[in-house]
Amino acid sequence: MKILTIFLFLMFVPCFCLSQIKTGTFSDLEIQQKKIPKPIIIHIYTSWCSVCKIESFQMNKNKDLMKMMNENFYIINFDAEKTKEKINFQGKEFNYLPNGNSGIHELALALSKNKNQPVYPLWIILDKNLNLVDYHEGLFKPETMKEKLGEVLNF
What is the pTM of this model? Predict the structure, then answer.
């Protein structure tokens, strides 16, 4: 019984200690923007990217940042190599491009400045009118992101 109690405690600790980003999809985005326009954060990553995992852990630990993001932005987490469905964004259709056992989504390439191979993680911040406000390749430290998002909100 004692082992079960300890196991359950350890299973639920992350739920209480870490905040979570509330994410949506590109298809939800258009509907949400019509109801309540907000700035948008697009986070492009891959499952194999170690920097992406470190960054995600650091951001999820920062409760103030999570609260700011969840309350003031629409957030889309987009796995560039695992997302295979067709996506409509800004009036264009984007598809997954298979390449043997792997592949990449056209939208990741379209949003990246490096059209051959995007740098991960990639953060794109758009204002509520879908205009580019910030483009950030690589590790985005929580403190830096909080400052940048604060600037976006004070526009």
Answer: 0.83
